[in-house]
Every structure is written in structure tokens, then in C-alpha cells.
Amino acid sequence: MGDIAFTKTFVQHYAFIMKTLKKSHESDTMSNRIVHISVQLFSNEELARQVTEECQLLDIMVTVLLYMMESCLIKSELQDEENSLHVVVNCGEALLKNNTYWPLVSDFINILSHQSVAKKFLEDHGLLVTWMNFVSFFQGMNLNKRELNEHVEFESQTYYAAFAAELEACAQPMWGLLSHCKVRETQEYTRNVVRYCLEALQDWFDAINFVDEPAPNQVTFHLPLHRYFAMFLSKAVKCQELDLDTILPDQEMLMKLMIHPLQIQASLSEIHSNMWVRNGLQIKGQAMTYVQSHFCNSMIDPDIYLLQVCASRLDPDYFISSVFERFKVVDLLTMASQHQNTVLDSEHERSMLEGALTFLVLLLSLRLHLGMTDDEILRAEMVAQLCMNDRTHSSLLDLIPENPNPKSGIIPGSLSFESVLSAVADFKAPVFEPGGSMQQGMYTPKAEVWDKEFDPVMVILRTVYRRDVQSAMDRYTAFLKQSGKFPGNPWPPYKKRTPLHPSYKGLIKLLHCKTLHIVLFTLLYKILMDHQNLSEHVLCMVLYLIELGLENSPEQESDEEESAGGQERCHDSWFPGSNLVSNMRHFINYVRVRVPETAPEVKREPPASTSSDGLASSQSSRRKSLQRENSGTAQVFSLVAERRKKFQEIINRNTSEANQVVRPKTSMKWSAPGATPQLTTAILEVKESILSLLIKLHHKLSGKQNSYYPPWLDDVDVLIHPEIPRYSHGDGMTAVERILLKAAVQSRLNKRIIEEICRKVTPPVPPKKISSAEKKTLDKEERRQKARERQQKLLAEFASRQKSFMETAMDVESPDVDVAMEVATSEQHVSEAIYDCVICGQSGPSTEDRPTGLVVLLQASSVLGQCRNSTEPKRLPTTEEEQIYPWDTCAALHDVRLSTLQRYFKDSSCLQAVSIGWEGGVYVQTCGHTLHIDCHKSYMESLRNDQVLQGFSVDKGEFTCPLCRQFANSVLPCYPGNNVERSVWQSHSNKCMQDLVQEVEDLQEQLGTFPVSISSETNLSKEMESVMKDIKSTTQKKYTDYSKSPGSPDNDFLFMYSVARTNLELELVHRGGNLCSGGASTAGKRSCLNQLFHVLAMHMRLYSIDSAYNPWRKLTQPMQDKNSELVSEELPEVPVLYRDVSSLLLIQILTMPQPLHKEHFTCIVKVLFTLLYTQALAAISVKCGAEDRLAWKEAGALKKNTSSGEKSWEVLLGHVISELSKGKIYEEGDTEELAVVNPDSVERDLQQFCLPFLRITSLLQHHLFGVDLPSCQEEEEFTVLASCLGLLPSFQSAHQFTSASCLDWPVPAFDMISQWCSELASFADRHPDQVKALLIQEPKWDLPRLLQLPENYNTIFQYYHRKTCSVCTKVPKDPAVCLVCGTFVCLKGLCCKQQSYCECVLHSQNCGAGTGIFLLINASVIIIIRGHRFCLWGSVYLDAHGEEDRDLRRGKPLYICKERYKVLEQQWVSHTFDHINKRWGPHYNGL
Questions:
Q1: CB contact at 8 A, 225 and 135
Q2: Contact predicate 1461/1348, CB 8 Å
Q3: Residue 1279: which H helix or E strand, with range?
Q4: 646: Cα within 13 Å, side-chain hemisphere
Q5: Nearest to 475 by CA among 382, 386, 378, 379
Q6: Which pLDDT score is estimated for 660?
Q7: Cβ atoms < 10 Å from Cβ of 123
Q8: Which of 302, 765, 925, 1203 might form a disulfide with 1086, Cβ 3.0–4.6 angstroms?
């Protein structure tokens, strides 16, 4: 029993707790603690029941709540500001702003969930009175007054507090109570609540001094008493079988009850018509919150239901005229072509009229509380949301109003959320759009839903933004076009409604009352006559209302009785009865209108006997028509006067005093004005009925005379089965046809009259004469319309221009632009390349004085270094056993090789034997646009002065391309001239090899002497220097300094040719690692190698290579003095066989004067190929065992003297083996014997060894000389590239082809090979252990890949989220893991900070040279760090519905989305993070 005792004590201290809460500044933490205690105490039903009985828990709670709120009450200013006695809570108070009341309310809701406790509450009259008293504090809070003059200075944000308070303190307890009123036995509870609710409402009306007119320009969205009343009524009818009339109040009370909810509906329309703009944005916020999914079923739904109840019980004419008066459009509803509206500016008239009609359609169509089952409601809600937009599963859950018990996935009713969803929607798996935008898995409506269930009315009710209605219509239009059901612009379809519950049958009277028919007739007439301020939307709603009336006609009229007594029953000059079906055919001949004297109608004399329509005059209230015989003339009809009269009758019926007391008017402002002097009466000849107007409108809409032909004349079946699919979708004409058909089906008379009208139809008669004033306004309207159309056209044209640019710009794989780059390949004949400057728009060549440059992005990259020697990508470790070691990466192996060489050989020579840049290499890419460098400088200046900066840093030279907005950070100068030597004949030169070799050597001797023009400082050379500085500063120092003596020029030399190597290798990777696909590739468009080469060459030629050490000599002439080397005590040079041939190629090319001749290029390639081939033979000889070596040696020796000995690999291999055997190369333990006996495999190995060099060389040739890359099969890649490079003299057929046939020795092969091998032999004497290790083995590098991720996210989460960091040994708050190398890091962790760099930023520099890809373990998202910026990339893990779960908030199981991961990898490899992801921000080294 300890529990009971504690609970009792807790309850007794409840009041004290409340005081503490009120005082507490830290109310959040305080309230959370209390709720933790109380939730446990009050969730146990037995305990709660006992405490309720013994400690008056309910009394205490309600009293405490009441007392709490009393501290922040203010006088209500609603209605009668001076004399109001009503008090409301002040939403600006901290108590409300901070939700301090929440713990108490939540306890209250909590204990009301117990049947026994709720029963006590609902039976206790005293408690109910107190509770209604509490609710009334919220009635009318946060009053908005429309600002008419100035814009408000200070936008109050109190509305958040007000909506939260009504939802939490009023609505949620209400839903709690309602959940116990589900069965017939609980009728008594409902009666109690309704009774005390009505008492509270009556008190409220008295307190605010309310009679019959709401105060103008005021609205409150908070009417919790009305909503309690409405929801208990709804429950009573739906679940308890109560007779509605036994609990409804009298007519006068109903008239009062409808006023404020109606005021809200009119205000919504005013707010959307921009009549409240001076109140600031917050008023729109309120209008949106009122209908938003979390609030709508406690706010707008009860309000509309209450209005439906009132409408079903009140006089329909009174109700309809109230609506138009509230919406301020009474004055517009006149047959006259001009009118004066005293309460509304004319620019708001149209949208207010649309608002009023739309509201009536909603009121008459919605069945949410009038007969729909919970399952039907759920389905309708879901269809409405899906029609507006495709939705993700979680947003659907969020958008569907909770039937108040929080989402259990099962919404009360038999069907679950999931089963309805699968019935109405199809799942669209997340497709991937290239170019970046991440798609989520979406649900989209099934075709049959569009066809049968799309309900515009429900969509209008549920849209928070007006544009969603348009979006739903656009999607509907697209569906009809696609399915071939309707090609044009459809109108909203008419949807059949669930039958009304019998209790609400009275609602139908609204559709069959004269007032509505007069309004419909008037509007149809005005639309036909093209009066101002009407729109297609108005017509659409008018037709919808007519159709609703035909669908819900009270009783079938009998045609006979009608024709006989028709004249007799016509007491009224407008319509004979109240049934729409018969009123539709009633002809109205003359109407008297009140118009301004200038109006065109005035000019005609009235016939002797007429009366008038004046919807604008309240004086001529309706008189009985004396002339029966002239029943076709309509009398004056005033909506407002009608309503007043009805109201008076009702009040008088209800007042008990004998003398008929008339209550005073509260506000004269709202009565329609008397006849103002400039109004005069005119008589209008109309001679139309609703049917004839509809038929003429059909002609007007179709633009053709006699376009309507009654369909039943051709096919009588139409009348028997009027539900024809061809009428279900279409535009205005279809709607008119559908209505006429329904009218004909319902009455033979109508059918006959329609046929008659069609026989003698004539064009509508426009008003006889147009006065100049009217003409002016018409002209003005027309001019404005034309201007609007012109503007639209211009905008459209502009948009399409931009679109076509974007389309050419957005390449499928990545947003690249292939404009200026075509220069290199297309202009065969032009001597000089022409460039367009995207800033000043001029075209011209690039000159020394005014160079043009390419917009480029320089970035350091370690992507190449991540290649591994295996085809399977590494997996992300998810257990302690799996670890990733970076020993087998390309970068690691290159590093080891360089440092080994540096141990044994001369430093300067080592730095020319390899390439660097596998890690931290500089990649250069361009969008292809060019600009003058001086234009660029001024562009940068303007960016610098522009304070509103995007996510890049101008000081670091960053900018976006002025044309395509691609991110860039430098400009690469274009070398003057054509850059590309194109003379085709040179490819097969007649000079012999020896001459060419000599020419190459002579050219290299001219080192450092530039072509005369550049030797002096020009703008061009300055720019080339500055871009070279940019390139160097792009990467970190540690990636450029490899020499033992710091600052040695050899370093720069190595760095520069390695930049070329990096860019070639990366392009190769982008092409998939080989050149089989030939010329087409996006990599080619992004590449600016040609320009880059010129910049590099200009700088490399500043370094002279001592001719004694020039590698060219070693490759092309036998050396004499072999002993000189042994004498010198310094380290020897790197043997030629240890040098990387691709590096040698770049050194040779870049140190030649530019532009290079094709024949010299080919010569260099041929010479280097001989060296490469020899390296391949050496590598094979080391691999095979001793016996094999002997065998090869002998086989080779036999053929050595044959004519083609120099071109046979067997001979050459034998020679290599015999030469190398002279040293100690093959000696130490041949333990792992790799027998290579099969000659075929030797040939294959040789080709594989040479291919990487051939690929790089072909790419280089492609960029320097514009030679196309042929496409080929993988098997023939070697032969195709060899012939493309000119190594294959005449192309032989493949079967007898050998790689050796490509050799072209400048000096006898055996001498050359012996010389090269002797260098190795002499090295072997000193360091026998290293000889083999340093021989170049071409490993097969796979393309760079990110780590492979596990299928299920939980695997990652479980391992990493508690894992300790290896640096600080703590469990990080935000753990992250690098997806490139698997390193575990602390995101934002201060624990691992080094020199102000947090760990992720640091790691991105060490692992990716500034690019890092991290998976945030606790959020499932990936962030990209690029230099000083970062961005959220998105998630590659999606739930079963194809959605991300950022921050793991929803806690759904997540699975890898392979397509997204592929895209991430693709962006990493292609270096396009900067272009594709848009939202970058600086990270200030804090990640």
C-alpha cells in the first residue's frame, strides 16, 4: 500500500507543486520531472480510481488548473470592447508561452483515460460546471483586429501559445472524455456535457453583450466551447443513437451559435484575399494552423460540423443570406452591370465571392460527421493528401489528422492505415536522378483513385497552402491526358457523396431555397453577360451547387400537378416554389435593379407593371405582387432585409413579453446602405431561366452557336442510365452537359423545355449601349490583361531559354558543359582558336596581352592513392576482428618504392624515376567556359564587394562560373595559337628514326630558351606563373616535398610533371580504367589537359637537365666510359630499368619546346617502348624458376641471329636472362617458383605489363594532337592503341601478332639491353637483397572504391555507437566513420582537437587531401568535407518505405540503398561534390 500513501501525499501537495511550477524559471526541467512521477502514479487504473474517490483528485486537479489560469486573465475585447464582462487568458504570459501548464493538463488527460474516473467526472455536475468555466477562459483568446491603415509595427507571435493551449488544455481532455461516450448507455453523459456547455455559451454571449451581429474586423480562431458542443453532438448521433432535436437549443441560440464559426470561415477567405496584409505574416500563420493536420479535427472540422447542424435546423433563406453578408458580397449579387460595394474594395470582390461559394460547397458536400464511417474518413483523408503530392510514408502518417488517440498506426475503425494505403496508392521506389537530388520512396495515387475518388472538396478543406489545390488539379490534368480520358484543362470533377445521416436531412433545404436559387440565377446571368469580378472558379462553384441540388432533390415532383397549379402557387415574383428541379425551368422576364445613374441599363423606360431585384436596396422590402397575371416579373429582393425579417420573427417568437420587443441593432455599419442619391431604379429585360442560361453558357464556353444538342434525342438510354463515364471528367462544357442531363432525367417537363430552348436559341443579348465610363474601365481591364499576357510570354521565353541552356549543360553523368572544349576537336582548318568570354560576351583569340582563360576548379585528390590490388572492395569493419590496413593501397606502395630508391641512389635522379601525386595530387577540371583574365579580375572584385556571400570564400579565389554557376577557384590561361598540331601527313614521317632521335636531343638542348615572345614578361606569362602558384598551393606541403634537400628544384620538377600524370590517370579512371570505349566520355569534356600542359611545359623548361644526365642519351646511345661511375664516391643514378616509363615520357614531352611536332612525339614513344618492353622481360625473368630461365636462355640463343631477332620476345628474353645472370640477380633463394612455361601466357603478360603506359600515352596524344581514340574490345586494346600511337608499322592480322613486333630499336637491341642490364648487375654486387624488389612489377590496380557497407544499418550502429575512440579512448558523443579508409573519428569532439583542427577535418586532410566522406553513426547521414566547406550529403540507408531517417528519430530498420551509394562513389571518383551538392557551409575546422 506504499503506493497509495505516496500518491495521496503527492495529490495533497498538488497545489503546492503548481505554485512551484509557476515560479520556476527552469519550468521545462521542473515540469518534466513532475510528469515522470505523476505518469507512474496515475497510469494505474486501480490506484487512480481509489485516489479519485478518497482524495477528491478530480476536484483538486480542476481547481488547481483553474487557479493556475486565473493568474493570467485579461478582459476580452471581443464584440463589445467597453462593456465586456468576459475574461480570457493572455497568450503573451510566460505561463502560456512556455507551456507551464502542461504537466497538470497531462495528468488530467492521463487519469481521464480510465473509464471509472471519467465516469465520475461526467456524472459530477459541479465538476462539469467548473470545467466549462475553465474552458471558457480560452473562448475568444488571442483576438485579431484587422489593421486598416498602418502595417503593424510588431508582429505578435502569441498565436503559437494560443493554438497549443487550445489543443492541449481544451481539445485533448475533450477527446479523452469523448472516448468514454461510445455506447448507447452513456447518453446521460452527453446530455450533461451539452447542457453545461450551452449554459457556459449563453453566459459567454451575455458577457460579451452579443445580439445578432458580430463586431466588424475582428476574428478569434479559438472557440473551444462551440467545439465541445459540436463534438458531443456528433458523438451523440454517431454512437449513442440520441435524437438530435432533444439536445439542441432553440432557434435563437442556434442563430447565435453559428455567427462566430461563420465569422472564422469568412475571415479565412479575407486573409487569403490579402485583406489582412497589414497584420503581418502571423495572421496567415493562424489561418494555416487552423486547418493544419494536427489541429484540423479539433478546430475547423467541429466548426464546419456545427455550421452544418445550424444550417439543418434554421430557416435556409436566413442561413444563405447570412453567409453572403458575412462574406461581404451582397452588393455584388445584382443583375445590374455596375454596383457599389460599401463594405469591400472591388479588387477583393472576386476572391471573396469565390470564398463564399466554396464555403457553401464545403458545407453541403462534407460528410465527415454526417454519416461517413471511420474507415471512409481515413480513406478520404489519405486520397486528398496523395492527390496534392506524392508523399513519403512518414509524412502521410503525419498529415492524416489523428483521430485524437495518437498514431497507433491503427486509426479507430476496422481498417488499419497500411491496408488503406495499399488500397489507394502505389509505392514508387526511390529512383535516382543524376545530377544529385536524392529521391525518397513515395506513394502515389493509383489510376482508379484519380478516376473515381479524387475529391477536390476534400482537397480544398485540407490544404494549408493554396498552391496545393493547384498542384492536385495539375496532377489530375496530367492523369487525364496520360490515360487519354480528357485532353484539355479539366474542371474539378463532381463526386458523389456518402448519404446523409437522417438527423441532418435538413441540410438539403439549403439547396432548395429561393435565396440560393436567386443567387445562382443572378451569377449565371452575370457570367453570361461578362460582368466584372467573376471568374471561372465562380462558375465552377455555381454549377457544383446546382448539381448538388439536383443530386439531393427533396421529393420527386409530379409533372401533372405542376402544370395545372403552377400559376396558382406562384406567390412570388422570382420563383414559384423552393424545389430547384422546377425552379430551373422558371422563366424570369423583367427584373428591377438599383444602379448608378451612369449605368447602361438606365436609358430604358420601364413597362407599366414591374417590380425590382435590388439586391442592393434594403428599403423596398418584398411586396406581394398584385398583378397575378404578370407573374413573370421579378420583384426587388434584398438578402439583408430578408435575413433581418427572419431574425426578428424568430426572436419575437421566443420572447415571452406581450409587447414585441425588438432588440437594438448593435452595428449599423453592416446593414446594407439605403438608397444613396446616385442610385436609380432601372428595369432589365431578362427573359431567361436557369436552364436557358446554362444552354447559352455552353455556347459561350464552346465558342460556337448551337453547340448544345440534347443527347437523349440520339440515344434514349442516356435517360435510363445517366451515369455515363464520358461525363465524369471534363471542362465547363462537360459540367453543363451533365447538369442538363440530370435535370432532364428528374423531370419530363425540364426535358421538354431543354429541347424547346435548343430549337430556338439565339446569341445572348448584350446590354444595348455602353457608356464611355464603362468603356474606360473595360479598356483598362483589357489593357492590363494584355500587359499581363505579354509579361507571361516574356517570362516563359526567358524560362525556356534558361531551360535549354540547363539541358545542354546538365550532362547525364554530371552537370558539365561541353562548349569551349569542342575547340580542340572540331576546328580543323582555323589557324587560331577563338574563345567566347562569358563575362563581356566578346569572342576572339587568346593573346599575349589579353589572354583568355578556362574557368577551372583545382582540387587536391587522393582518389588514385586509394586503388587497391584486388578486385573486391574492402568492407567497412563491423567487428573487432575486421580491420583495414592501408599497406596495399597504390599510394602506400608508391611511397615505399620512392623511399627505397632514395636509400640507394642519387636523390635528384630518384625524383625523376617516379611520379608522385597518388595522394594529394592536384586535379584540374573545367566547366568548359572561357573568360578574359582581366574580366575575371573585375568579376572577383565585384564578388568581394558583394556582402551577401554564398557558401564560398572569395578571398581564397573561389567563385562560380558566371554562366553555368559551377564552382571554381582559378583560371587556366589558354596558350595563343591553335595549340594542336594537326598536319596529318606527319603521322607517317619519311625521316628515319636516327634523324628523329637526333632532332629530339637537339631540341632538348635548347632548354630554358623560350620562344622569343614569351621570354620577356607578358600578361600571359604572368598569368601562367600565378596559376602555377595556385596549383602548388592547392595541395599540402607534405605532398610536394619528397627530396632529401628541402627546397630543391628537383621537387618542383617532380611535382609539375606529376600534376600531368595525376590528371591523365584520373581521366583514365573516369573512363573506367581502360580506353575501350573510345572517344566518347564526359571525362573528356571536363578535361583541360591541353592548356594545363602548356602551363606545365613553360615552367618545366626553366629547369635545365645537365646533358650528361639526360635520360634521353641513355635510352638512345650506347655509353662509352663505364668505369667512371665506380670512381665517384657519391650514390649512383637510378638504373634505367628501375625508372617509371610513364614519368620519363612526361619529362621528355614537357621539356621539349612547344608546340611539339607529332613526329617527335612518336619518336619519343617508340624509344620509351623499347625500355618498357625490356622492363617487362626482366620482370618475367625474375618470376620464373631456374630451369625455365635456362630453357628460355637457350631457346633465345638459337634464334638470336635470325633476321627478326630484335623483334622476337623469345630472343630478347633469352638475352635479358643471360645479361642479368652476370650479376647476382637470380641468386638468392628461388623459393616461390612461379613456373611460366607456356609461351602464350608470356605474350599475355608482356601486353598487360605495357598496357598502362600505352593508355596514358594514347590519352596524351589525344589531348595534344586531337587524335581520336578508337573504341575496341578489351582483347584487342593493346593492338588498337599500339597502331594508334604509330608503334605498329603495318597492321598485321591478330593471330600472328606479337607485342614484340611493335619494337623499333634506335640502336642495336642487344647492345642497348646489355648496357641497361649491366647497371643492374653492378647494383646487385653491392645490394643483392634489393635488386628484385626494385624491379618494376606492374600490379593490376582496380578502380578506386569506397568501403562496402553492410545491408542493415543496425550492424554499423551496434558496433560503432558505443565504440571508444582510439585517440582519446572515450566513447564519442558524435561518432563518425570515414567511408574511404574506415577510420573511426569523433565528430566535433574537442577531445581529439589538434592545433584548432577537430578530428574529422584533420582526417579529411590526411586521408583525402582535404576531401572527407563520413558516415555519422547517430544520424545515418553522410557529410562531405571539401577543404574549408562541408555539406550534408544525405543518407544511403533507407527504411522499407524508401525514406531516410535522419537522426534516427523514427527508429525504423534501415537498409542500404545501393543506387545512392553508387552515386556517392561516382561523385567522389569524378570529383564533382562541389558541383552537384548545393548547400555548402564553412565548418571553421570544428567538425
A1: yes
A2: no
A3: helix 1277-1284
A4: 19
A5: 386
A6: 36
A7: 12
A8: 925
Retrieve residue 782's grid coordinates.
483589357
Angle at 967 between CA 962 and CA 972, to 5 degrees: 75
C-alpha 229/C-alpha 896 separation (Å) is 84
- The packing angle between helices 300-313 and 224-239, to 10°, is 70
Name the residue with cell 499576357: 789
130-155: burial string, b at 16+ Cβ within 10 Å, e else: bbbebbbbbbbbbbbbbeeeeeeeee
Q: Does residue 465 carry a pLDDT above 70?
A: yes
In degrees, to the nearest 5, what angle opens at C-alpha 101 toward C-alphas 97 and 105? 135
Name the residue type at position 427.
F
- CA 910 to chain CA mean position, Å: 54
For the chain, the C-alpha Rg in angstroms (whole number) is 44
Structure-block grid coordinates of residue 101 = 501548464
Pair type for strands 588-596 and 633-634: parallel
Give the full edge-to-edge strand order of the sheet including 970-973: 921-932, 852-861, 970-973
Write out pLDDT tens, residues 1210-1232. 888 888 888 888 777 776 554 45
Under 8 Å between Cβ of 444 and 457? no
Do residues 905 and 1132 make contact, with C-beta atoms less than 8 angstroms apart?
yes
pLDDT digits (tens, 9 = 90+) for 1404-1424: 999 999 999 999 999 999 999
**N residues, the chain:** 1487
Place of cell 551509394: 1461
Q: Give the Cβ contact number of residue 403 at 10 Å.
A: 18
Which residues pair with residue 1352 across a beta bridge? Answer: 1455
Instruction: List residues bridging with 973 in a β-sheet.
Output: 853
Distance CA 1023, CA 85 (A): 82
Q: What is the DSSP string of 711-725?
A: GGGT-THHHH----G
* Cβ pair 968, 855 in contact under 8 A: yes
SS3 category, 364:
helix
DSSP structure string for 450-511: IIII--HHHHHHH-SSHHHHHHHHHHHHHHHHHTTS--S-PPPPP---PPPPGGGGGGGGGG
CA 1463 to chain centre: 18
Q: What is the reported pLDDT for 167? A: 93
CA 1400 – CA 1424 distance, rounded (Å): 10
Q: Residue 1155, preceding bond cis, omega within 30 degrees?
A: yes
- Cβ neighbors of 586 (< 8 A, separation 6 or more) are 575, 576, 689, 690
Report the 10 Å Cβ neighbour count for 1376. Answer: 27
Measured CA to CA, the distance from residue 974 to residue 852 in angstroms comes to 6
Helices (H) and strands (E) in the chain, counts: 59, 24
Name which of 734, 736, 365, 363 is nearest 584 in CA terms: 736
- Taking 3-state DSSP, the helix, strand and coil percentages for the chain, each rounded to the nearest 5, stand at 55, 10, 40
Q: Which amino acid is at 237?
A: V
How far lies 740's CA from each of 513, 535, 689, 1097, 1269, in Å? 20, 21, 13, 85, 71
Average the pLDDT over each of 265-269, 280-284, 796-800 and give the range with the smallest value.
796-800
Instruction: Of 365-379, 771-785, 1312-1326, give the lowest mean pLDDT range.
Output: 771-785
